[in-house]
Amino acid sequence: MQKQALFVAIIAAWAGVASAQEWGDLTGTFVFKGAAPTAAKINVDKDPQFCGLHPLVDEAVVVNKENGGLANVAVYLMDATKPKIHPDYDKEAKAEIVVDNQNCRFEPHMLGIRTGQTLLIGNKDPIGHNTKADFFGNTPFNDLIPAGGSLKKTFAKAEATPSDLTCSIHPWMKARLLIREDPYFAVSDKDGKFMIKNLPAGEHTFVVWSNKFISAPIVDGKAATWARGRVKMTIKAGTNPLGKVEVTP
Amino acid sequence: MPATETTWRDTGRLHQIFAVTGVLLTIGTVWMFWKDHARTWKTYQVNALNVDQKVNELRQQQYETGTAVVEHDARARELAEVKARPIDEAVLKKFKASADELDGTLTRWQNAGHPYSRVSFDKVWIDREAQTLTDLSVKAKDARKVAVDTEKAAEKALTVLQAKPTDEDLKKAYAAAEKVFREADRAATDAEAAAAKVRASLVTEFQRIVDDARIREDKALGIRKFKNGKIDAAKANVDIAIRDNLSEDRKVREEKVHELMGDMAHPDEDADQGKDTFAALNEIYQTISKSRKDLEKALKLITADAEAAQKRYEESLAELERLKKQEQDREEKFVSVYDYWPFVLGKKILTLPILDAFGSPRKIENLWSDGLTQNYNFSYVRRFDRCTTCHQSLAKTLPGTSTTPAFVHEELLDFVIVPPGKDTPPKLRLDEQGNEIPLTLEDWLGLKLSNEGLLNPDDVTVGMVMPKSPAAKAQVSDRIPSNRQATGLEFRKQVAQIVSPPGESDNLFPVLPGLMLGDVITEINGDPLPTSGSNRGPADIARWLKGLSESGQPINVKVRRGMPNPYVSHPRMDLYLSDASPHRMQTFACTICHDGQGSSTSFEWASHAPNSTLEMERWHDEYGWFDNPHWIYPMYAKRFAEASCIKCHHDVVELEPSEKFPDAPAAKVTHGYHLIRKYGCYGCHEVNGYDGPTRRVGPDLRSEPNYFAVAQQIEAELVAAKGQGAEAATGWRELLGSLPRQVTDHPEDNGARLKLKGTIDERIAAAGKEVTLLDKSLSNLSNMLKDVEAPGALRRPGPSLRFIGQKADPAFLYDWIADPQHFRPTTRMPKFFGLWGHLKDGDGHMVDEKAPKLEPVEIRGLLAYFDSYKVMQKFEPEARPTGISQWTAEEQLNRGKMLFQTRGCLACHNHSDFPEVQKYRNPEEIVQGPDLSGIGTKFAKDRNPVGPDWLYSWIKNPTRYHARTVMPNLFLVPDKDLGADANNPADDKWFDPADDIVAYLLSSKSDWQPIEAAVAAQKPIDDLADDSDLKALVLEYLNEAFYKDTADDVYLNGIKPELESELKGAEKDLIVQPGRDLSNAQRLKYIGRKTISKYGCFGCHDIPGFEDAKPIGTGLADWGRKDSAKLAFEHIAHYIEHGHGHAAGHGKKADADSHAALETPAAAKHVEENEEFKSFYTHALEAGNRIGFIYQKLKEPRSYDYDKTENKRYNERLRMPQFPFTSEEREAVITFVIGLVADPPQPKYIYKARDRQAALVAGRQVLEKYNCGGCHILGVEKWQISYAPGEMGERPEPPAYPFLNKHFSAQELANATKTDKRGDLHATLFGLPPTEKDDGLPVVTDLDGSKLDSGSPYAERELKFGLDLYQPAIVDGSAYQTGQQPVFASGPQIEARYPTWGGALTKYLMPVVTEIERKSNANASGSEAYGWLPPPLAGEGDKVQTAWLHDFLLEPYAIRPSVFLRMPKFNMSSTEATALANYFAAVDNAEFPYADAGSRDRARLADLEAQYVTRAKEARGQTSEVGKSTAPPEMQRLDDAMKIVVNGNFCVKCHIVGDFSPAGGNRAKAPQLADVYRRLRPDYVRDWIANPKMILPYTSMPVNIPYQEPPAVLSQLYHGTNVEQVQALTDLLMNYDQYTRQSTKIADRVQPVPTGAAAPATGSGSN
Predict the structure, then answer these.
(1) What is the ipTM of this complex?
(2) Looking at chain B from residue 1361 to 1390, which residues have their Cβ under 8 Å from any Cβ of chain A?
(3) N or C, where is chain A less crowded by C-beta within 10 Å?
(4) A115 neighbourhood in chain B, CB within 8 Å
(5) CA separation (Å) from B1495 to B19, B499, B1112, B1637?
């Protein structure tokens, strides 16, 4: 493992030197393997007067019925060494990333943030929520957010796996938060598409995660093994497609 | 008679005799001296001394190299630099001023005629020298700077050269730089020396001035004192004048006094005028003294730096000096050379023969233990031990530690040394010319081999290990995580199931990582070291190791560490010998624990005890050891060493692992104790810990008084009498009322018991002589209710058999009694019948006729006896509730299974459907309740018509059947199933959990079938086809009571009723009413009663009619000292010899037979004894040792009857049953029993816990009795981690309320940053592994910090384990507070991981309930599952109020709505509940039994109220709501706090408050807040509100009032800061009862006083 990492690092360093400052994008599409499941309806037994007004479903798997696209898949860079950051990302380095308590659910369901950015957790609902998060590297929190209130959090360290944001008052509520030091992460949209822009050229390891590590996908029709959700890609200048990835999260 | 030449004897002959005797005497004397000289202990002392001296030398080497030298050099350089510093001008000025002042005054007084000379000092010289010093200092400083710069340059040149060692130019450059540096350094040193010289001369001069001043001062003081004497005399003269009325003289004399005193108002004038008045002299003294003090102060400032530097310099050498001195002190030479004399004779002279009688350094060491005595048969004499005469290193610890043994016992260890690696080899060493100095092993591995072994000169021994070097960092191979692969899920399950503490091996010594001084290398990479040939010896081995290092591959080294005995240190110096331990060597010495002959100085006479036959043979050959039967206290063999602990530790439980001693102090003896308690040995063998009512002599294991059984029997007698038509019974029943029931339920309630007894006694006394049979038996029973002095406290281990006829069917019972393991292989009930191994001959043929015939009759007798009680006392099973909905059998079964799994049954029971739970239990744990697999077979309706109802009743309310059972009431009350739609009440259905569990249990069947005889037992008793066996047995008994003829008659015709009053006991069963025949049923009942008496069944069970029966076995209170002559070994030797009992190699067949029954079903539990184990005990048995006796007794209890039965009557045969012990369990029991010696030392040595400690001991006993740890985690995990600095990461102090973060002192932080020799830091952490949301299993990550993927494979070495802290700790130099992210540590970083204490069920259920919960809520979080399960009780004492906990334990009620299972109700006494409540408070150091009620202090509340109202008025202008409360004036503050509680955003979101319950499912509901004031402690409430996660990391409760940026809405509810809001909420909750009073108006409901005219009086009572 360490040897591999070393190898990757050497290659990356070499690549960095050889093709000074070339940048490439990683794109791909996630598709749900098999028939799209119907999301389970949530049994709203808390604050039904308000939460019950909204059609709440379990959002662990969100599939686009039209094209089978799988939303909320996180793809992120997981190299042994720090990557070079493209200057385009500088202006976002201190940005505010928003997640809302809205209609008794989190919006969005899956989001990423860089260390240095600020997470703003809002509550647009007329009822109180709390947001609970436990981390491996960062200070955990579990704060109450009164109706209309908000909360700001910053993070000191990257987390290797997305963490859960939950609400203890409404136990069905859940969002996933990925904290990375670099900006090289993306979440698939409602069509299952994602793009990570301006990666330094060279070989990289990416993690693909949706509820768990995606380890046995079908990539462009061929079965692949991504042990622990890790996939290696050599990024060249221009667009680098990961392909159409069929998964069952 | 004239003188002749003849002598009386022949002179020649006499000379011959004289010569011979002279020679003989000489030989004798020499032989005697030699014998004395050659005593073995002297050899041991010499060897131990040599080892010590060698170790000392090697440790001195450590100071000659590496960091020690660097440190020392730095200190020397610092000293030189300080010594060359200029003198601070201000200080110098001050000094000169003081000197001037002194000189001035002295001159003045000298001139005035006082006898003082000046203190001369040359100011010019001083100034000049000071200037010179300043100049020289500057030069020195500059020179030093140059030297440092050149050194850096040289270093740089070296670095460059090291990168390219072959480059000649670089080499030259380096040599040149080095030369420059050396010259600069020399120049700097010279300059510093020059400056230092000047400084020294100045300081000397200053010191002289101070000294001179001191001389003047002393002189002045002397003169003043002299004057003082004169004044005293003058004053006395005045007094005489007064006495003698000499008024004239008085005046003169007073004048004289005044004259001597002088002018006290102007003493300086007196002085200047040269008067020698007291005033003047005093003035002079004080002035000089002041000047002297000023001078000294200034001088001190001048020399302070140098002195401090000198001290530091010396300290850097101190340890070395100490070692040198120690070496010198202990050095033994024939000739010693000293500095001051050419030579003197050395100490060694005194070790020579003959001379060694005079002050030899070889001495016998006596340890006189303080006040401990030894029983020498007729008197107690003071104990003294000479063990340390040979065991010289016994109490030695490793340098720098207080409890780590210096010399461990020899063992072979495998180490892996990782050399620096090919890419990063050690730096080249170059000499000053830049020539390469070849690298040594020291450079590569930080390892140096000694030229000579410690004990054996040829051993290749580690002589030095450099700190932080690869050798210091070598890992013991089995501590290196393997490459073993498993999936993420499997690893996480394994983490959840960690149950054993570390170090579960035979070797008690800790294995320290890293190679250590004294380690002997025996193998390198699997190749043994050469023992002969040219390439042996340290130098060659060093070359070999160096060669391997260069390759960069890890090196495997096998090392022999430690010493053979007697050079070993004690393994547990945390417990013994050291000053830090509870048993100091000076106080306790050795034999009080180990026994043996402490005064002996030779191996064979010390009564050493071998631990195995192998050891015995070796000792015999090497030391001439023999088993000395005349010393009655032989040493305990190592395997029994813990036995003596219970001599002083009578409560035993204090010997269990604790926070202070996490490594079990006495694992074996405590295991034995638990076995004896759980298997109920004490039922037959009383272990009476008391000699008299108050004197404790040992552990007390006695059954409690049988009051509850007596009370039940009273009721039974009434029923029986009523059945027989006794009218009196009705009267009795009315008289006694519910008293018997009260006593049954609460036998500890003395009031009820004595009332019952008193009522019966009174009635009988009133009846006079007219007593009926019923009266008589009640009177008997009443006697059993009397008080007992120091009663026993244990409940009977077996279930009650009072209603057994109404529980089990006859076939089952028969089968069970015949062989309990047939139905349940894991039962603890021993086997009484069919133990016939000793009744067979060598070929396995049965030679006895009686046993096979009579034993079945005995069993049938027991059945008949129980059957006869069926009519006497009815058991009414619990009725089923009404209103339960209809369910299909499958629904019931599935739910029943789930309920069985989650409602707590598995805390005390096993079941084959849930094998996983066993993995969460400590392997030594004796599961409290029976294994319930296949229980359906026992209670199936078709076999046992009353079975299902009984089972229901038992599960629902266990005490209904057995009042003293430890099985609790689980509150299995009917519950609602919310159906598919939780919000729709229409689809709700009711179910009865108890009934569902019964349905499940009944479905759990095994293929058990009763044996044939058992089936036959179901037939009506009088149909016995052939009663010859019955007759034989009845006559066996009758012949004991009657003459033979009478006996025959009684057998046939029974006993006439008129004789009843003369009969006692079982014979009553044979009474026949006129006109009837004696029935077989009666005969069998008679046999049954006799059988119960014979086998002592009542020892373990409550059996009607045996309420006051005494244990039938030998008392064990002093068994450990039992004279083996009093043990009946009988023909056991023949038995063994003839092939029985595993001993010999032949006769295996008989052996197999005798154990067939035991070994078939219980095979899983039965661990085969190994040869070593067997031979040890066989030898002990053959030697007639009591250990051998008890071993065989436990193994084959009846075997002592071998060849004895023919001469014994049937009923005289041995009766001890066979327990299903494994060999380890047997040994644990033996260890406990031989420790029972009833011979405690002086009371001051008896472990007597006080205060908190006593509460802990008492609490532990209750915890174990009710198996609280079966569910609850009673102690969290403890980790000891070691890590390189920076590895764990510093954590900044989290922003939190000031009362939340724990503050560590600077000292604590500094202590935690000291690295060990490996360069690692250490920390001890307490906590629980965080659990993953998805499945409730512990979180484990890979080295990147990613959560493990359940399906992917991982290698063990790439894992990191998490721990949520439950106590703050210092890690990596910073405070790790609770409530933060978990601490993650990898396998090698975790040195020891102690599992939780208790909590098997909780840990098992974590993933189970997560899975169940996720079925209804896919997002349910397994990380919060502790909240749904029995809570971990860490910090419980800080949390709850003691009084509340007591009440709660007795009457538990539902607190957390979210739980899967409720706290059950145990039938414990108030005393036990108190013990538990106090225990938890004591663990946490919380106040108990009562705590400060400051939070309810009226004055304080009123004060805060007043402040609040003022503030609220001020704020009223700003916000509209605050302070506008409708509550009474004194409740404004709490009422505003209540606004936070009831605001829709806060507490009421989840909490039940008074009559309000939030909507929603139970899992999201939180406890009732109205209860907090009596449940929780105020500080806990405050901390909890402030940040719940800091108290319980798993909680889902959010922070409502954040420390930073609290939500604006709060200040609209309560006016104040967030700290004040938290305090106000705390005050409200802690005064909730006071607060709610306002809303309950009692005055309105009080009946008004009637108005109007009074009614006319009707009576005459007005008088």
Answers:
(1) 0.90
(2) 1362, 1379-1382, 1384
(3) N
(4) none
(5) 102, 41, 58, 18
